[in-house]
Amino acid sequence: xxxxxxxxxxxxxxxxxxxxxxxxxxxxxxxxxxxxxxxxxxxxxxxxxxxxxxxxxxxxxxxxxxxxxxxxxxxxxxxxxxxxxxxxxxxxxxxxxxxxxxxxxxxxxxxxxxxxxxxxxxxxxxxxxxxxxxxxxxxxxxxxxxxxxxxxxxxxxxxxxxxxxxxxxxxxxxxxxxxxxxxxxxxxxxxxxxxxxxxxxxxxxxxxxxxxxxxxxxxxxxxxxxxxxxxxxxxxxxxxxxxxxxxxxxxxxxxxxxxxxxxxxxxxxxxxxxxxxxxxxxxxxxxxxxxxxxxxxxxxxxxxxxxxxxxxxxxxxxxxxxxxxxxxxxxxxxxxxxxxxxxxxxxxxxxxxxxxxxxxxxxxxxxxxxxxxxxxxxxxxxxxxxxxxxxxxxxxxxxxxxxxxxxxxxxxxxxxxxxxxxx
Length: 423
Fold this sequence. Notes:
Layout: H1 2-28, H2 37-49, E1 55-59, E2 62-69, H3 76-88, H4 92-105, H5 107-117, H6 120-132, H7 134-137, H8 146-162, E3 164-165, E4 168-169, H9 171-185, H10 194-206, H11 209-237, H12 247-255, H13 268-271, H14 279-300, H15 302-317, H16 322-327, H17 337-362, H18 365-368, H19 373-388, H20 400-422
Antiparallel strand pairs: 1-2, 3-4
């Protein structure tokens, strides 16, 4: 009976999440900003849908479908959108609907994470928060990879958490974790952080180093099998050993340069190099030259690097009102002026409330013990990863899959304490 009630509640929450996301998308209807990540994903998804492979045409009017093979960004999100464009043509609403669907389904793995780390009641509370939290809802119509990546990230974490049961490994879930990590990595390379996180959690759960190492090795091999075809494609068509994407050096340079601010800024020195070369050739320049210049700058400016590290962390953890700028195409598709400030406050306040409640859970470390091992290591590792590159508020969205259960656990704990006190 309890399982039926839980399934029914989860189903209602998924449909509520879908409805809210579709309504927000229908109201805002953003287009893709010029020469943005979103425009690139749109163009490459159209190329895939039309049988032109993962390719893009770089013009003064922006990214367009067709053109040359590309690997500037990983292919996962474009491949996810391509079937919708193949079925319905170049219709942005098809992409919004795909985002809304996976955004709504993210409720399920967040429920599983909350239940596994804390308790069934915390799982349901986590799902309810995830269904309606503006930080997750407002990014839905934006053609960026965050919505899909957060879903795959949550699914991978759930598989990791359930892969060991009372020290016994579940081989199917270890394989599933490897597949999901590989798929998430094809959307954003940062997903590879889940392999060391899995190793830490499996060591905690099994209390046997050998089992944790074997499980991690198996998951890593499976993830590499998922990634291998893409790496081989890049070697064949990009004339460069690009394992995942050519934006590694590009992003590294953004975070380590005289013009670095801690968040995204256009690396003009990379764009100005070797004018007249094709965009395919430029991608290799971005990767190779960007890496060399970034490392040279970091080694020669240690004091500024320390200051930049602090700025990157601040930008990573800032509230989510950036979502409004993207959802209104930076003013091209504006919302009613009277709605802007209330929506901004809603975004920022709700995010800060979740952050505060999650922080309250962390303060109960002695009580919760190993339960917080995975969330705290993941939060620390994710933060350190973005110190290497740069921070943006939207980059903390994947961490909501553990911050929400932590916040929900505080709500459940406080509710029970209040009931005991009242009784």
